[in-house]
Amino acid sequence: MSLADKITMLMARPGGENAQKDDIPWWMRYAGRGLGTVGSFIAIILGLLNCTGIIFLNVSCLIAGIWQMLAGFLVIVCEAPCCCFFIDYVQVLSDKVESRPYWNKAALYMGLALPPFFLCFFALSTWFGSGLIFATGIIYGMMALGKKASIDDMRTSAANLEAGVGQPTTAPRATLVTNEQPFSFTGPPTKS
């Protein structure tokens, strides 16, 4: 058993399936989980710092800070439910999010991270806190794209495209509508 397998076994969720669902590298999974966990803790702390904008009567920064703290909490619930074991529904929500495809998690995290940018654009705490959540979404988006093809497969595909073999049937030059009619101008309608 390799070191990576031992770490995977230690980090497995209790009651979760231990079989790998896809061919994503182990380091990318832990990068997403680790950045999501650590980044959401930092986002909560920086969101609290962002809420001090109310002292200067900046309500939009207060709302951005609250949003950032809620987004950080939701990411912690999804990525590290052991940090919130005192809340009953956390494991259910975490399992539901874990069963979704990676692109769903990417869209969720990126969507949660964007509103604070628009509400309080010039605060560094917004950029760094929500930026970590957004970066977690980017990692999950890269995981959704899947594994890159081998160099031999890419060379073969490029050679086939250069030679004209295996051209897609729906090339941009292809006719979109098979029964198209020529366009003509008939003039304005006449009164009857």
Automatic annotation (TrEMBL):
Q: Does this UniProt record's set of keywords contain Membrane?
A: yes
Q: Identify the SMART domains for this entry.
A: Cg6151-P
Pull one GO CC term from this UniProt entry.
presynaptic membrane
Give the way it sits in the membrane. Multi-pass membrane protein
Tell whether Transport is among the UniProt keywords. Answer: yes
Q: GO molecular function, one example?
A: calcium channel activity
Locations listed in the record: Cytoplasmic vesicle, Secretory vesicle, Synaptic vesicle membrane; Endosome; Presynaptic cell membrane
Q: Note the subunit structure.
A: Homomultimer. Associates with the dally/ magu complex.
Gene Ontology BP terms: endocytosis
User: What keywords are annotated for this sequence in UniProt?
Assistant: Calcium, Calcium channel, Calcium transport, Cell projection, Cytoplasmic vesicle, Endocytosis, Endosome, Ion channel, Ion transport, Membrane, Transmembrane, Transmembrane helix, Transport
Principal subcellular localization: membrane
Membrane-crossing ranges are 35-57, 69-92, 112-145
Q: Which Pfam families match?
A: Cg6151-P
> What name goes with this protein?
Calcium channel flower
Query: What's the domain of life for this entry?
Result: Eukaryota
Query: Which family does the similarity line name?
Result: Belongs to the calcium channel flower family.
Q: Which organism is it from?
A: Bicyclus anynana (Squinting bush brown butterfly)
